[in-house]
Amino acid sequence: MKKILLGNEAIVQGALESGVNFVSAYPGTPSSEIGNIFGDIAKKYGVYFEFSTNEKVAMEASIGASFSGLKCLVAMKNFGLNVASEALIPFCYTGTKGPTVIIVADDPSCWSSGQSEQNTRAFAYLAHIPMLEPSNAQEAKDFTKLGFEISEKYNLPVIIRITTRVAHQRMPVEIGIIKKSSTSGKFVKDVKKYVTMPPRVLEMKEELLEKMNKLGGDAEKSKWNVLTGGNGKIGIITSGVSYLYIKEVLDELGFNIPTLKLGFFNPLPKKKISSFIKGLDKVLIVEELEGWLEKEVNILAKQVNPELKIHGKDVLPISREFNADIVGPVVAKILGKKWKVSKTLSTDVPKRFPRLCEGCPYWFVFSAVKEVAPEGTIFGGGIGCYMLAGYPPHGLQDYLLCMGSSIGVAHGIKKNSKQKLITFIGDGSFFHAGIPALINTVYNKSNPLIIIMDNRITAMTGHQPNPGMGKTGMGEDSEEILIEDIVRACGVKHVKVIDPKNISELKATIKEFLDKKEVSVIISKRICALWERRLKRSEKHGK
Amino acid sequence: MENKTFNIVITGTGGQGLITLLQIVAEAATIEGFDVKTAELHGLSQRGGSVNTHIRIGEKVYSPLVPLGSADLILSLEYLETLRAIPYSNSKTTFLINCYSLPFVGTISEKEIDRRLSELIKSDKIIIAASEICRKELGKDVLGGIYLISYAAFKGLLPIKPESIKKAIARIIPKKYLDINQKAYKLAKYAN
To answer: Which of A1, A4, A249 would best serve as a mutation to test chain B binding (most B beta carbons within 10 A)?
Structure first.
């Protein structure tokens, strides 16, 4: 039976069909739906699910569950893997007990990514971790299952690297049988396996390299590294969603040239690639973002076909996602054909910036800040709905890097400058990575004004629960962790919780706190307007 | 429709229900036995910003993205946003436009939008105050999308029968909102 699934839904389906037991995630577009869906269905299928406080903690939770023999899935967006990498890399050394698949979602063209156009493939080299790249929703499901199989066979965690156009692509997907799950595990002590300390750690690295070497043999035979197309002296090597554009473009051109579609990014099936390029005069490597496949092909060609003309990033861009309009002319040119460019019209339309929702409590905060902050005040931004501070009509964002950095960077500025500084951080970001930065600011004595934009939920990514709101990822009650308690415990002396609708109190406090010699914190506490409406509606409908 | 992909671009702003519409069309297409691929965006781009979603229907569809100049139908839920979808159109594209504006600071006048629409669109252009009709009849602007997609099916602007859209609505829309969505479908049936 087939059912139309979103790429991320297909991943969930694949994990269920593999019999996943334990799922931990941190929301981040374009990966968030994976966690959202597990939050809704985990109980029904006997799976444990949590939205962890950050990606590193999510990784560690699954590592613990894997060490206890459970089948685990971890999901995050690309930047999340930066946070989680501290745990991921030694995890590759220890290896898994229960099979573990890690979904990492990249976002070429930065459709919903505020910090960089990061390419997760780099982690394959850094961590020596198997990495698979599906091209469509069906493969997203198949590769998730394949990931569990590889992990089971080699005791290695496996990354499934998806991109926006895979995660948020819908298509009919074959639905299989869901396996029964149980969440009872047992940690069996094995110091040799689970403790990464020298000198043992170096043996572990050798074992890891040996496993990857063996997996390379499987990759050579895998049906997911697939040769399609006919004969000829010009070929294409591609992977991920780019394959779909290539199929479409070749169809359009009426050509059927040899095409090697790689499901494995790491380890690469080097023999297969070598034999593919051996008989070619020319090869085009079609991969989004950095040209790492191309580098590998260059190395392989030196040995098997030094005369081969290799095209890739000389004709295709390193930045921004691909589509048939970008790939088409390049393929046509390589084939000595003309690409029929449709004559299209366009007109300059004023940009419609994303904006705060109607009734959003942040409106009050931004307007209060705008009114009372003295000329020249520096405004720190972070990741979440409050990053809209950078768009009109607010204009309250002078730097923005990553989760939690609004505080960390504020300290660095304030330590060296007398300029006034107000920095924003959301409740979710505060729990995620704000607390260590706050401790640093207090202990090393600088004095930014930090406004914690507590809207009672992780809103931007689609309303996921966080430790400040009293619900777990599976919808169970849990005691709220009060942000003001944490802030005080970190040693902050000037702390005030304010409902931002009390705009005069908010303004007076901002003024007062901006003159403090020590760090000060305002917690602007009011529920996200969308979430409030949704809660009211579901109450009305008796849910 | 043999060997030819039918390309739909739905354009509008975040919060207008574009993804629900996309799900309905995709579901309806599979009810009729077509292959289908779609593309959509979530997150930051959804927060009241401009959004477009792509739906491709055919015997075999590879890419989820509609190439420039190759939309068969552009369904626009917001008047100004129609202009942003023009690069996807060609001389045969049908435009189905909601006469409904969500203006913002720095936008251009409706008169100017009118001028550009008539300058840039030489093909069929159907403008309907769908959101207004739905507000008057059903109390909700947001149903304008359901009205328009149903209208498209009834008028033969889609390679999909109205009954399949109806079935898809029943499958995709949550129970508590189903009745009102079915009403929007019926309103479109009797549109001129």
So the answer is: A4
Give the integer Cα–Cα distance in Å for B51 and A308.
Answer: 43
Residue for token digits 């420039």? B68
Which residues of A fall within a CB distance of 8 Å from B68?
325, 342, 344
Residues 307-326 of chain A with CB under 8 A from chain B are 323-325
Best CA proximity match to B52, nearest among B76, B71, B73: B76
- Nearest CB among B26, B27, B40 relative to A168 is that of B40
Does residue B192 carry a pLDDT above 80? no
Residue A360 φ/ψ, nearest 5 degrees: -60, 130
How many CB pairs lie under 8 A apart between chains A and B?
Answer: 151
Extract the tokens encoding A402. Answer: 């990553």
Instruction: Find the farthest-apart pair of alpha carbons in chain A and give their distance in angstroms, rounded.
Output: 76
Please give the pLDDT value at position B3.
Answer: 56
pLDDT for B2 equals 43
What does the pLDDT average to over A105-112?
A: 96
**Which residue out of A106, A170, A331 would a mutagenesis test of the B interface target, given it has the greatest number of B Cβ atoms within 10 Å?**
A170
Residue A308 contacts residue A277 (beta carbons within 8 Å):
yes
**Which of A228, A349, A387, A463 best probes binding to B when mutated, by most B CB atoms within 10 angstroms?**
A349
Taking only the tens place, the pLDDT of each residue in A145-179 is 999 999 999 999 999 999 999 999 999 999 999 99
Tokens of A34: 């994976």
CB neighbourhood size of B155 (10 A): 14
Task: For residue B60, report the phi and psi dihedrals to the nearest 5 degrees.
Answer: -145, 120
Q: Residue A155 in 3-state DSSP?
A: coil
Q: Is A540 on the interface with B (CB under 8 A)?
A: no
Amino acid at A432: H
Q: Model confidence over A259-310: pLDDT tens digits?
A: 999 999 999 999 999 999 999 999 999 999 999 999 999 999 999 999 999 9
B170 contacts chain A (CB < 8 A): no
How many Å apart are CA A66 and CA A470, to the nearest integer? 27
Banded model confidence at residue A355, pLDDT cuts 50, 70, 90: confident
